[in-house]
Please model this.
Amino acid sequence: MRSILFKTIAMLLGFVAAFAVAEGAVRLLRPQEVGPVRFAFDPNLGEIPVPGQRGVRHFPGVFTFAYSNNSLGWRGSREYREQKTAGYRILMLGDSFTYGLGVNDDQTFAARVEKNLTADHLSVEVMNAGCPGKGTDYDLKVFQTAGARFRPDLTVLCFFCNDFQDNERGEYYNIDKQGELAAKPLKDNQGAVKTLLFRLPGYNWLISWSQAANLVKQAGVGLLVKEARHTNPDLTRGLVVSYTKTASGYATETNKKLTKIYVERLNAAVQQAGGSLMICYIPVSQEVSQYRRTRVVSPDEAAIQGIALAAGGAFWSLTPLLALSGQSIDQLYYQEGHWTAAAHAMAAEYLSRIIASRLTRPPGTSN
Model:
């Protein structure tokens, strides 16, 4: 028994030592982002930020930020009542830029807009329903299932160029030849996998601090995608979201038509709930650099602007603001592509002025 015990202890110590060496090597040679499991499966919305979660995500050399989600999976710990607690209510819809990947709760442009407007003596509540990796179809679904009951005075759709391709995944709606939408039942393939991992003892703790564990996780997901691509593609749905950019951007004739339908339906739903829709374009860093050189917006931005105006929504672009700010790209964007706190603050200052004028405009005034 003593011999078996010594051998077991030796094996455990060997494993710990090997893991420590692997951890050090990964941190030195190929640093990985670490943090808790970020998404949970919701039967109406699919993958959403884990409701009620508080955590810290760290990407070595890029960012470290603290975040919280409320019971709806919306950014920030504040819970909302259906009855308004402020004079005006604003709902922000969008993807990881709107959610605020890379910055703390109080540094997101949504949080800063509320702070700015409150400082200007407006009674305002801003709700941030942004969700990383989602498109306009998700924005429509989240408004229909949750947002509408809060009856926001203004809904701001924050559109990013790859939302065109997100809209092609067809995750939330079937569309008939007349353009009518029917909600799809959501498949819980990836949800079951992630729920199992989330409940696995020690898993959440391990990927919250171990860069080696996160590298292994990414390799495992890559193998699953490779194997399932030809046998059962549904197994990979939601595990990896990839985008293919052409010379003219992400927009195609097909996904522009889909996006137009989603924007029109969102505008109608917002109006039915007693509010108005505003569409805001969030540029990728390359679009900012291009505008600095040419003073011309990208084909993707031109496409969504045309869709927004045709649908009757107000459209505003953040491209000129960032391009003409005098700030370098490194000051505005992290190297992995998301906004820095400085860019969020700049966007919030601009949006606050626009939103203030819309909220205080006399009834019946046009956009």
In short: The chain is about 45% helix and 15% strand.
